[in-house]
């Protein structure tokens, strides 16, 4: 017997479709799901009229359970809200667990925050961004095309989104004349 109770998952070959996304469920996050995250509240409210899809997360069939290593591919569509680039909600793992991101297409960045100092890792196809345990993380599309990355994380990590609403992420990532501009919160 395994030392913990999880639904059994067989070894599996996970295939990618033409968009390089795993074939599992897709979670769609629209502008209205990102309440309280962009600095320019008026610009965010104006964007609600169309309520565009900001990002999609396609998951593999591996469950989020202790001992498993689920994966997902996130696509952040290009765009800005009051000069701030489209981004994920961001979260911290309630159980301190590391995570790996691999850039697949487009350009973006991985913003990390430990509650004290923020870190920024530019991401492009082939870049691995390592998220150590205890660091909140958010991904940002800093380009004009969809930014897509693979995430692999321990299945018991969990997602705490309120931590980011309470503490912020240390930086806001804005569009600047010479590329992304990191403005302290
Ligand atoms: O969970 P968020 O902050 O919306 O960001 C989405 C991305 O982060 C993950 O939750 C993994 O950390 C994935 O599901 C996805 O890669
Ligand atoms: Fe995570």
UniProtKB/TrEMBL annotation:
<keyword id="KW-0413">Isomerase</keyword>
<dbReference type="InterPro" id="IPR051610">
    <property type="entry name" value="GPI/OXD"/>
</dbReference>
<dbReference type="InterPro" id="IPR011051">
    <property type="entry name" value="RmlC_Cupin_sf"/>
</dbReference>
<feature type="domain" description="Glucose-6-phosphate isomerase prokaryote">
    <location>
        <begin position="29"/>
        <end position="174"/>
    </location>
</feature>
<dbReference type="Pfam" id="PF06560">
    <property type="entry name" value="GPI"/>
</dbReference>
<keyword id="KW-0479">Metal-binding</keyword>
<keyword id="KW-0312">Gluconeogenesis</keyword>
<dbReference type="InterPro" id="IPR010551">
    <property type="entry name" value="G6P_isomerase_prok"/>
</dbReference>
<dbReference type="InterPro" id="IPR014710">
    <property type="entry name" value="RmlC-like_jellyroll"/>
</dbReference>
<comment type="similarity">
    <text>Belongs to the archaeal-type GPI family.</text>
</comment>
<keyword id="KW-0324">Glycolysis</keyword>
<dbReference type="GO" id="GO:0016853">
    <property type="term" value="F:isomerase activity"/>
</dbReference>
<protein>
    <recommendedName>
        <fullName>glucose-6-phosphate isomerase</fullName>
        <ecNumber>5.3.1.9</ecNumber>
    </recommendedName>
</protein>
<comment type="pathway">
    <text>Carbohydrate degradation; glycolysis; D-glyceraldehyde 3-phosphate and glycerone phosphate from D-glucose: step 2/4.</text>
</comment>
């Amino acid at each position: 017997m395994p030392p913990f109770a999880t639904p059994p998952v067989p070894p599996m070959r996970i295939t990618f479709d033409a968009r390089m996304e795993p074939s599992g469920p897709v979670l769609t996050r629209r502008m209205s799901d990102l309440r309280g995250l962009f600095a320019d509240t008026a610009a965010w409210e104006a964007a609600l009229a169309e309520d565009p899809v900001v990002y999609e997360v396609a998951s593999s069939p591996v469950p989020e359970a202790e001992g498993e290593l689920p994966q997902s591919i996130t696509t952040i569509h290009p765009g800005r809200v009051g000069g701030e680039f489209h981004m994920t909600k961001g979260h911290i793992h309630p159980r301190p667990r590391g995570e790996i991101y691999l850039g697949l297409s487009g350009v973006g960045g991985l913003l990390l925050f430990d509650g004290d100092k923020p870190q920024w890792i530019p991401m492009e196809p082939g870049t691995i961004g390592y998220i150590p345990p205890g660091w909140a993380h958010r991904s940002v599309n800093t380009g004009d095309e969809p930014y897509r990355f693979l995430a692999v994380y321990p299945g018991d990590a969990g997602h705490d989104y309120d931590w980011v609403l309470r503490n912020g992420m240390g930086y806001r990532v804005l569009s600047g004349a010479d590329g992304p501009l990191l403005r302290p919160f």
